[in-house]
Amino acid sequence: MKKMFLLSLFFLIVFIGVSTYFDNFVYYTDFQQLQESDDQHLQLLGKLLKRWETGSSASINNFDISQIELAPDDKITVEILYQIEPYVYLKPIQLFEQALINYQDSIIINSMYLFYNFQYWINTKDPKAANIIFEYVDKIERLIGEKTPLTVYYKAQVLTKSNIYIDFQTAYEELLKMHYVHPKDKNIIEALVEIIYHIGETSEIEKIYNDYIEIKGNNPETYLYFSKIFYNLGQNQKSKEIAKYAISLTKNTSILTQIYEFLGDIEEDYSEKIEYYRKALNNDRENGRLMAKIGTAYYELDKKENADLARYFLNAAESRNYINDEIESMLKSLRSKVILENFFKFLLPIIILVIFGLWLLNYLDKRKNRKENDLLNKD
Description:
19 helices, single chain, 379 residues
C-alpha cells in the first residue's frame, strides 16, 4: 500500500513538473468556459478555438498576449491555431501530428491532435478517426493519470453515435462519474441526458435536471429529452412544462417540429392535440407522418363532423407514402361514407328521376293507346 502511495506521489510530482498552462484544456468541453476562465492562458486558448469555430477574429484581435508566458509546446499550439483557417480540420491534424514528433508526451499537443480528429470524425464518421480518438483518449488519460471531461466526452460521443462502436452503457457510466466530479460541465450533462433517454437509466435524472437548471443550460434538444424522460416516468405535467419551455429557446424549425409533435403525442384533448400537430406541420409542410397524425386526430375527435378534414389529411399522408394498416382502415371507412353520401345526394335523385321519367313516358304512352282504342271503338 505504501509503495502504491509513493508511486502515485511520484507520478503527481512528475506531472506537475512537466505540465504547462494549456494542459488544463482537457478539463473543459466548452470554448465559452475557456474564454470565461480566470486564467489568461486558457482565455487565449478559448479565443483561438472560438475563432476557428466561428470564423470571427474580433475577440482574439482585442486580446493582449504580450505579457503571457508560454511553454514551448504551448507556443507551438498558439502558432498552429493562428495560422490555420477557420472551420478546417485536416490541416491542423497534420500540423499537430508533426508537432508530436518532438513533443510526444505533451498533453496540449496530444489534446489538440485529439480535438481535431474528433472534429473530423463528427463530419465524416470515419472509423479510422474513431480509432485515433480511442487511442489518444487512452494516451492522454495515461499521461495525466485520470479521466478528464474532454476525454470522457469524446469517447462517449463515439460510443453512442458511431455506426460501429456502440456501447451506451459504458458511455453512460463514464459520463455519470464525470458529472459527479464536474457537475457544471454543460456538454457532459447534455450527452448524459441523451443517453439516459435511450437506455432508460433514470435513477439520477432529478439531480441531473436540477444541475442543468442551476448552470442555466439552454439547449432545447436537451430539454426535449428531459421532457420525454419525465413523461415516461409518469410526470406528465412536468413533461409538458419542460417541452413548452424548450419552445422559447429556439427558432430552429426542425427542433420546433419535434417539440410540437411530442406535445401533440402526449396531449389527451383532441382539439389541443390537433393544434400542436398543425404547429409542427407549419414547420415541416411535407411531413406525411404529421399529416397522418392530424387526420387521425380529426377522425377520433368526431369522424362524422370532421370526415372531410380527416380524409383530406389522411389522403395527403398516403400521397407522401406514409401509410399503415390503421390509416388504410380509416380511409376505407371515410371513402365508403363518401360513396354512400354521393350516391344519396347525386345518383339516387337521378335514378329516381330517370325511373319517374320512364314511368311517365310509359304512362303517357298507355294513355295515348287507350284513347286511340276508344276512338276506334266509337267508329
